[in-house]
Amino acid sequence: MAKKPDEITGEPTYEQARDELATVVATLESGGLTLEESLRLWERGEELARYCQAWLDTARLRIDAAGADAEPDS
């Protein structure tokens, strides 16, 4: 069976990154962490948020391009 692109690159899918980000936020909100743990999680959350935003930006560009291709020529 062929591997999916995320299995080849080792990068998470959008959904995996989004779910991990939600876990990071919940953990930070629950409190009880040391400052070092909080900073590490905050940095990971920022990284995941940028990754998810890049996915969404790319999806928007693809949708816009598909819409432009589907418009009839005037």
Note down, in words, how this protein is organized.
This protein has helices spanning 5-9, 14-30, 35-70. It is elongated. The protein has 74 residues and is mostly helical. The chain has three helices and no strands.
Short overview:
The chain is mostly helical and about 70 residues long.
Number of helices: 3
Class of secondary structure makeup: mainly alpha
- Quote the average pLDDT: 88
Helix and strand run: HHH
Q: How many strands, which pairing sense, and closed or not: the largest β-sheet?
A: none
Indicate the percent of residues in helices: over 70%
Question: What keywords describe this structure?
Answer:
single chain; 74 residues; mainly alpha; 3 helices; elongated
How is the topology of this model organized?
Blueprint: H1 5-9, H2 14-30, H3 35-70
